UniProtKB/TrEMBL annotation:
Pfam families: Aminotran_1_2. This is Histidinol-phosphate aminotransferase. The modification N6-(pyridoxal phosphate)lysine is found at residue 228. Residues 36-360 form the Aminotransferase class I/classII large domain. The keyword Phosphoprotein does not apply. It comes from Silvimonas iriomotensis.
Amino acid sequence: MSLRDLAPEYVRAIAPYQPGKPIGELAREMGLNPDDIVKLASNENPLGISPKAKAALEREIAELARYPDGNGFDLKAAVAKKYNVGMDQIVLGNGSNDILELVSHAFLTSADAAVYSQYSFAVYALATQAVGATRIEVPAVEYGHDLAAMRAAITPNTKVVWIANPNNPTGTLARPGDLVEFLESCPAHVLVVLDEAYTEYLAPEKRPDTLGWLKRFPNIIVVRTFSKAYGLAGLRVGFALTSPEVADILNRVRQPFNVNSLAQAAASAALDDVAFLEESRRVNDAGMKQLTDAFVRLGLPFIPSYGNFVTFHCGDAAALNQFLLKRGVIVRPIAGYGMPDSLRVSIGTEAENARFIAALEEALQD
Ligand SMILES: *Cc1c(COP(=O)(O)O)cnc(C)c1O
């Protein structure tokens, strides 16, 4: 007998999440100077962290011998104030990935099912599979969620629907009217996770009023993160906004100290840094134009994106990826998403984008 066999079949079948290649790893593999490497692979904020968050971190270091506040009072108070929700509607997570896991652990068993879209965020399948629940993957339309088909795919034992809006890795955005129609038609026994990791990158008039919808739909779980526009990916902090009943259940399966004290302090400070968020969005809009103009000029089709990344079609993506890596440019292969002819590139600073474009041009001339 192998010790592997002690794990349930559904755990042994898990294909681990493939993260973007770390800069240090590429430097070691190719003998490159880490400072010459441009990483556009994990939708990180190219501006770094907000100065307010940095100051909060420096203050918090003195307190590191103590456990974090397991209830995250200050961060929850800041979130409650900013979004006009009750403290009892907030669940904090070690990244929003943790929130997705909490939903699975709290609500799904091997007798249940969860619905998600083809080409949607890989963690939905992983979190569903980790508890042995049935995965119902619904074909996408034009790389986005087919909400009518997803509604039709809901079975009596479906307890969770995962929706990323904007979606990663395709960058598509669902129409608010279609989302409301979906929520109205959803049976009451289904929880709908609205994962809005990129919402801060949307122009304000494009953001669906998901927090407004919470009053009408207690079964929705709005998920947000500090990893993207807030620039705190390395600290791991995200949160859910939902009804008090659902929040109470999620908090029962949470580790007592799942969000560390540095993360709590930095996130509280970052929430208030409106100037940093606006600058992040401005740089992203400019970079999106820079990259998509280049794709048009080079004749590479791309999926119009509402996030801080864009997926483009390039034929042999594995070969192009290797070419870019040799030139110190890390982008994200998405063959694991069933898109072997495409690559996803995150929006960087103007100079980083230019490095990527120059390497791409060189590859196409080869
Ligand atoms: C990046 C991302 C997340 C996870 O981010 P965390 O770092 O775990 O907060 C969640 N959902 C989507 C769609 C993402 O792209």
